[in-house]
Amino acid sequence: MTFDDFHFHPDLLDGLYSMGFDQPTPIQEQAIPLILNGNDLIACAQTGTGKTGAFILPIIEKLMQHPAKGINTLVIVPTRELAVQIDEAIQGFSYYGSVSAIAIFGGNDGMSFEQEKKALTQGADIIIATPGRFISHLNMGYINLSTLQHLVLDEADRMLDMGFSDDLNKIISKLPVKRQTLLFSATMPPKIRLLCNAILNQPKQLSLAISKPAEGITQQAYVVYDLQKQPLLKYILQHSDAKSILIFSGTKEIVKKLDRELSEQKFNVASIHSDLTQDRRNEVMRNFKSRNLRILVATDILSRGIDIENIGIVINYDVPRDAEDYIHRIGRTARAESTGLAITFINEKDQFRFKKIEDLAGMLVDKMPVPERFGTSPVYNPMAKDISRKKRKPFKKRNNQPKK
Q1: Which one, of 162, 203, 165, 163, lies nearest residue 184 by Cα?
Q2: What share of the chain is helix, strand, coil (3-state, %, to 5)?
Q3: Pairing state between β 150-154 and 180-185
Q4: Is 56 exposed, middle or buried (0-12, 13-18, 19+ CB in 10 A)?
């Protein structure tokens, strides 16, 4: 199947083919006809499967066929990186048409806020926004949402995990009841089901490879002590010919430390974390996408908001807190049908957590031998944490009465 089979507007097809797109991914092949037919939709698919195109392409098609006045579509996302990614995709797909879009997110200066206000009041076709920033504009009272036809919640599970439930409810309460609602999520826990029941109208449902790593990813793990992580990381970086490497850590403190120490060791590295200005984050991402930057160290803000082809290696410097986050971290490599390598460092306290990841993924990850130069490594015993959690027998107080 090709995109020609959807009978898209010629301007949209020109945009697709100029970007090198020819065949739709499975989620696009199934979702696009449903959205074009006006159905509400629940779509569950792993990261890297082309979800952005699955909902953006049919919306752009509708706008090209029937240009609208005012805000037509609101896309709510959890992070600024994902907002920028979707905005860039829209600009590319609609390059030969006249569809307008703007990404709205926090962390910008006052001038950016004014530009966002202008787009909102003049009625850009598609608004891509993080919940908090959109509510900031919504509270000012100048947004007219009466023309809205489409609501898209992307990475809905992540938004609820990040505590945006109340914000989402407030935004949705301001929207027209008669609209098409599309919910895309990598996982489908009960709280997402409750949200779907509340805001969707007789939705169609799609589910592709829920919470499973892409087949093209080779997964490896090293069982190490914390003091072995940094020298092992340096060893892997020195012996890899990968041109693009992404390192994840759960905290910005460790990200900053790795950035500083790898830079001192003359690696071509930079980092992204919440303390950086948006301009600096944009600069780092541009350099990484253009391959001017080989190594990017990041917190989980990037695990679902980066769309870069051919990342050779993803390294989990620590084990993610949630099993689903592991899927999203390693999903940055082997995008679509390519291949890649995912490496995870497992210390003693994270062994049981990694066992939960293996259970979710439905596979055992190869435990690689730590090179002898780094000394003895821990024994992999993921059930030790369970054993340590067993309740001890109640302590019996001694009877200190003297013997008769």
Answers
A1: 203
A2: 40, 15, 40
A3: parallel
A4: buried
Distance CA(223)–CA(268), nearest Å, equals 26
Backbone phi and psi for residue 138, each to the nearest 5 degrees, phi listed first: -60, -40
pLDDT for 256: 93
pLDDT at residue number 282: 81
Topology of 217-389 in CATH? Rossmann fold (3.40.50)
Averaged pLDDT score across all residues of the chain: 86
Which helix or strand (DSSP H or E) is residue 374 part of?
A: none
| Average pLDDT of the segment spanning 194-204 | 93
The tens digit of pLDDT for each residue in 293-306 reads: 999 998 876 655 56
On the CB side of 225, how many CA atoms lie within 13 Å of its CA? 7
Residue 295 near residue 247, CB atoms below 8 Å: yes
Residue type, 264: E
Contact between 240 and 386 (Cβ < 8 Å): no
Query: In DSSP terms, which residues pair with 32 in a beta bridge?
Result: none
Average pLDDT over residues 2-13: 95
- Residue 336's pLDDT band, with cuts at 50, 70 and 90, is low
Q: What are the tens digits of pLDDT across the range 42-70?
A: 998 766 678 899 999 999 999 999 998 89
Of 140, 95, 109, 142, whose CA–CA distance to 123 is shortest? Answer: 142
- Rg of the chain (C-alpha set): 24
Tell me the torsion sign for CA atoms 55, 60, 66, 68: positive
Q: Give the pLDDT band (50/70/90) at residue 374.
A: very high
Q: Where are the CATH 3.40.50.300 domain residues in the chain? A: 3-208, 217-389
Q: Is the dihedral of CA 119, 124, 127, 131 positive or negative?
A: positive
DSSP for 255-311, please give it.
HHHHHHHHHHTT--EEEE-TTS-HHHHHHHHHHHHTTS--EEEE-GGGTTS---S--
How many whole angstroms separate alpha carbon 230 and alpha carbon 288?
A: 22
d(CA 248, CA 313): 11
- Give dist(CA 172, CA 168) in Å, integer: 6
CATH architecture of 3-208: 3-Layer(aba) Sandwich (3.40)
Interhelix angle 51-65/10-18, rounded to 10 degrees, is: 150
Predicted confidence at residue 329, as pLDDT, reads 79
